[in-house]
Design a protein that fits this description.
The complex is a heterodimer of chains A (530) and B (486). Chain A has 530 residues and is α+β, with helices and mostly antiparallel strands. Chain A is 39% helix and 14% strand. Chain A is elongated and about 120 Å long. Chain B is 67% helix and 4% strand. In chain B, the strands form two sheets. Chain B has a three-stranded antiparallel beta sheet, covered by helices on one side. In chain B, strands 4-5 form a two-stranded antiparallel ribbon. Classes of the chains: A alpha+beta (530), B mainly alpha (486).
Chain lengths: 530, 486
């Protein structure tokens, strides 16, 4: 072969007739060539080298296999990407979720591969429980309590891996929530086809009775592997944003409902007393109250005429001019400070993630970060740059109902696993205002629902046989219909339920939110009496 | 049953054999090896059956059943083993002095693949009762092809005379796929004509080897000539480089039009190896590799799918749940297997009733074997392929002329190189290409084409001397045709 010829210093000089032997190939090149190389025809040695090359190639395969199967074996098998770890987590039967009365809200079914998926009792729960899917992860309470529900207590992948070899690897916990399914459903039903949110909670304990967001969606269809992708895609494309949990993550202009926050700051800081009046207020009702070149206007002068309003009357008729002046007198620092004690300026300490409510964008030269006195005056009656979540407004109402003490809102009463039951009791966040001041604001809110003037504005919230206190709000927006608000509590003498109702772009507070609140107070009474 | 009818029956068979001039030849080595193969496969199937029972009991929360010695899908395994021994019987009856190692080797590989198909979810693929039944059908058809070719092919004139016809058939097949091929997963691999569908590139690799054997054996002297100089290289007359350039172009075309990187790589590698085998000129290999690097570089910068493959290869962990998913999960499978494996049926954790690696039954059986049989198991599987190639090259070196030598070498190298390409892709030694693991992967086209190869190799291995066809001279075909007409 050419190989030897080169070694011998010569090259093949021409063509060999087919079938004729080449010279020299009777002797193998070296010891490496197999014995059968170069025997009959001139390609034996080349075959030998090809065989050798292939043997090397397969040797490299053996080395590669050894690298992954021995050297890298532990590293790879212990990573979270490993299919064994993924499969183990998919086969876990998540703990069931119950309402406070033991009604089952979420449980599991097995698909055709015997892998579990989530089923929910009602679409109305979608805004609070969220969903749990294989493909799209989890949201809502399913996300917040994922570790306990799935029993994946250990974040250590090594323990994760060994768990699959145990007879019963996981300890998923069942949750008893603070929710009341019938109230949750009543809230979603009352909101109807509108976009909005309802928060109902017990002001004494912070236990959330209902946390509704509309439009709701079929979370069971999102979790069912057969319909998951299609449903989730539709929900994501839906421009009504059904996946947004509005009660906790929707930010809205509060309008007049914010006056209860301004009240806490003004009365709490001593800037005004319940008897405070503004002499120029009746006159300003006609042409607006002028501050730094801006006119704050009002809409109730037809009723009140020349009456000089005191604090309670100002709440009853929702006087913007009274609160604009009060805001300026209170000052940005106290307003922002008291709002901060209620939870403004930071995510709320809650089971679910919340958007941050604010009284101003901040960064302005005035105390509290207000840009000027005009912004402060407008913020005092819930306009300007004030943005709130419905949950935040419910907490404000609950604080007034609970003698000025803010309780930490929470969604879970008990988590029960094989290891036992963990109970989550009430805890106070702090005293926002003194009880006397809370009582004064509560009395004003009672007038706003039941007073001769207030009835006109907030009539729908009143319930026969139940004294309701509250404050409506009409959040004027740059364009479109205003948001409609109601915040309040009941019964007035012994508050047991606080509420915040928001209906997006639906008109004045009396038009939409107040009647919904009234409906839900009745539903609440049915539930407590039942 | 009494002995009389049996003896009478045997006598009748003997008479019939004499009438047909059949002289059976005992194939002891083949029989011994086949018995070992059968024992290995039965043990494997028992292990699979026991693992299944244990898993079911664990799922149901029951105690493990007392009797675990149960075969998984016994009918499928028994039919396959009967098929193997039937082929052996037919070869014995045929009485040819042919290779006795190839059949047991291929039989074990096919059997391991069949066990894997029994073990995987049956609804992964297959029109019959599922994955395993369909694979069994193709294996039986494949064995039939092996035995038909091994017995019937005694003359290679029809191969060597019509090499350009074969080349034309190959090119036609390629063009058909270009035009009518169906796109599956972005690659145009599959051709459907009427009720039949298949992957033409599998058949093409056989045709390619036949053509190359004809072309290279005929033009070997010319290719060895060194009349052209290109830098440090001495090259044969330029016109004889044409097929090399054509091969390069065809490989590129397959990548560009069919997006079939695996087949292109296989064709080009086999071509280079055969060129080297027939000329023993290393400079060809260097030139070929240079052309490969240039071509690969071009493709990398021009075509997204090539770039994606390469990028995934460089760092599959950059996107472990997206682009790199398959490769990463395959590496995880190897890692879970470790040294001795999880055991058949105990690996491949099921996610949504599916094994964790997509296209496991066609593209990743090597990773599946790596997990369930461990490093030990896949070293054995690699060894089986080396045995196959060694037998093929041995047949080549013992061949009576260059055509048969190059043909035998080419046929065995196709299997060896293909096994290397997909195994190396699974192990992230080279970029992953969608190509089957010969005899193990699920799929009719692949099994049939590889059966053709084995059948031809066995036929080529016959040691009885048969006169070679006379050297070819111009006008020979003409005269042959004339004689036929006379």
């Amino acid at each position: 072969m050419t190989g030897h010829e080169r070694a011998g210093g010569t090259r093949p000089s021409g063509r060999w007739p087919i079938g004729q032997r080449e010279p020299g190939h009777a002797h193998p090149v070296s010891g490496s060539a197999p014995s059968w190389a170069g025997r009959r025809i001139g390609i034996g040695a080349a075959l030998g080298r090809v065989a050798l090359a292939l043997a090397f190639a397969f040797g490299s395969l053996a080395l590669g296999a050894g690298y992954w199967q021995v050297i890298e074996s532990d590293n790879l098998s212990n990573s979270g990407d490993d299919a064994a770890v993924i499969a183990a987590s998919r086969n876990v039967l998540r703990g069931e979720i119950f309402d406070r009365d033991g009604v089952r809200l979420a449980w599991n079914k097995l698909d055709k591969n015997d892998e579990p998926y989530r089923v929910y009792a009602s679409d109305a729960l979608s805004g609070v429980l969220g969903y749990s899917t294989r493909q799209f992860g989890t949201s809502g309470l399913e996300n917040a309590w994922n570790a306990q529900l799935s029993g994946v207590v250990s974040a250590d992948p090594l323990r994760e891996l060994t768990r699959k070899f145990q007879a019963d690897p996981s300890d998923p916990e069942a949750l008893r929530t603070t929710l009341v399914l019938q109230l949750q459903e009543a809230a979603v039903q009352a909101l109807g086809r509108t976009r909005g949110a309802v928060v109902m909670l017990d002001p004494r304990t912070g236990e959330v009775l209902a946390l509704a967001s509309t439009p709701d969606y079929d979370a069971s269809a999102v979790s069912n592997p057969d319909t998951s992708a299609k449903t989730f895609d539709q929900l994501r494309r839906d421009n009504r944003a059904p996946l947004l949990p509005r009660a906790t993550q929707g930010l809205y202009v509060p309008g007049s409902s914010f006056k209860i926050v301004t009240s806490m700051a003004a009365l709490g800081s001593g800037a005004i007393s319940p008897a405070t009046t503004y002499a120029d207020q009746p006159r300003s009702e006609k042409n607006g109250w002028l501050i730094d070149g801006y006119r704050v206007r009002d809409a109730h002068h037809l009723f009140t005429g020349n009456t000089v309003l005191d604090y309670r009357q100002a709440i009853e008729v929702s006087c913007n001019i009274y609160f604009a002046q009060t805001g300026v007198r209170t000052g940005g620092e106290a307003l922002a400070g008291y709002a901060g004690r209620l939870g403004f300026g930071a995510a709320l300490p809650f089971d679910l993630p919340t958007e941050v409510s604010q009284v101003t964008n901040g960064g302005g030269p005035l105390p509290g970060g207000f840009a000027d006195r005009v912004e402060l005056a407008n913020a005092a009656y819930g306009q300007a740059e004030v943005l709130v979540t419905p949950l935040q407004m419910a907490l404000a109402a609950a604080t007034i109902a609970n003698d000025g003490t803010l309780m930490r809102p929470h969604l879970v009463l008990e988590a029960t696993g094989k290891a036992g039951t963990t109970t989550i009791g009430p805890s106070a966040i702090g005293q926002v205002v003194a009880p006397g001041i809370a009582h004064e604001i509560a009395a004003a809110m009672r007038l706003a629902v039941n007073g001769d003037w207030g009835r006109f504005f907030t009539a729908g919230a009143a319930v026969r046989g139940l004294v309701v206190a509250g404050k409506s709000g009409t959040a004027e927006l740059g364009s479109g219909q205003p948001h409609s608000w109601f915040v309040g509590f009941a019964p007035y003498d012994n508050p047991q339920v606080a509420i915040a109702v928001l209906v997006e772009h639906s008109g004045g507070g009396n038009v939409k939110a107040s009647p919904i609140a009234g409906q839900l107070f009745r539903a609440w009474r049915t539930w407590t009496n039942g | 049953m009494t002995a009389a009818p049996v003896t009478a029956g045997l006598r009748a068979v003997g008479r019939e054999a004499r009438r047909l001039r059949i002289t059976p030849r005992f194939r002891g080595r083949e029989l011994t090896l086949l018995v070992i193969v059968a024992i290995a496969l039965i043990v494997g199937d028992l292990s699979l059956g026991a693992t299944r029972l244990l898993k079911e009991a664990q799922l149901a929360g029951d105690q493990p059943p007392p009797d675990l010695a149960v075969l998984a899908a016994p009918a499928i395994l028994v039919i396959y083993l009967i098929g193997l021994f039937a082929v052996h019987g037919a070869l014995v009856l045929a009485g040819r002095r042919t290779d006795q190692i190839l059949l047991p080797t291929v039989g074990l590989l096919g059997g391991i693949g069949l066990l894997l198909m029994i073990r995987l979810p049956q609804d992964l693929a297959g029109r019959l009762g599922g994955l395993a039944q369909t694979q069994l059908l193709w294996l039986v058809i494949g064995l039939t092809i092996v035995v038909l070719l091994a017995i019937a092919v005694r003359n290679d004139v029809w191969l060597r005379r019509y090499k350009y016809t074969w080349a034309a058939v190959g090119v036609g097949l390629l063009l058909l796929t270009f035009v009518f091929g169906r796109d599956i997963n972005g690659a145009r691999l599959s051709l459907t004509i009427g009720p039949f569908s298949g992957q033409p590139s599998e058949l093409l690799k056989v045709i390619l080897v036949v053509f190359l054997a004809g072309y290279l054996s005929e033009n070997r002297p010319l290719l060895q000539e060194e009349s052209t100089r290109l830098g440090p290289f001495r090259l044969p007359p330029l016109p004889y480089l044409a097929p090399m350039v054509a091969m390069w172009a065809i490989a590129l075309g397959i990548v560009i039009v069919q997006r079939d990187l695996g087949a292109a790589l296989l064709f080009f590698a086999v071509f280079l190896l055969l060129l080297y085998v027939s000329t023993a000129r290393f400079s060809f290999v260097v030139l070929g590799l240079a052309a490969f690097v240039v071509g690969a570089g071009l493709l990398y910068f021009v075509f997204d799918h090539v770039r994606t493959r390469i990028d995934i290869w460089v760092d599959p962990f950059a996107d472990p749940t997206g682009a790199g998913f398959q490769v990463v999960q395959a590496l995880h499978a190897f890692a879970r297997g470790g040294l001795i494996g999880t055991g058949l049926g105990a690996g491949l954790p099921s996610i949504a009733g599916r094994p964790p690696i997509p296209a496991l039954h066609t593209d990743f059986p090597f990773a599946a074997l790596g997990e369930e049989l461990g490093l030990v198991g896949i070293l054995a599987v690699l060894g089986l392929y080396l045995v196959l190639v060694e037998r093929g090259l041995r047949i080549a070196s013992a061949a009576q002329d260059e055509f048969r030598a190059i043909l035998a070498a080419g046929l065995s190298l196709v299997i060896g190189v293909q096994a290397f390409i997909i195994a190396a892709g699974n192990l992230k030694l080279i970029p992953l290409t969608g190509i089957t693991l010969p005899f193990v992967s699920y799929g009719g086209s692949s099994l049939l084409a590889n059966s053709v190869i084995v059948g031809m190799l066995i036929a080529l291995s016959e040691r009885t001397r048969e006169p070679l066809p006379p050297p070819r001279r111009p006008g020979r075909i003409r005269r042959l045709l004339d004689r036929g007409a006379a």
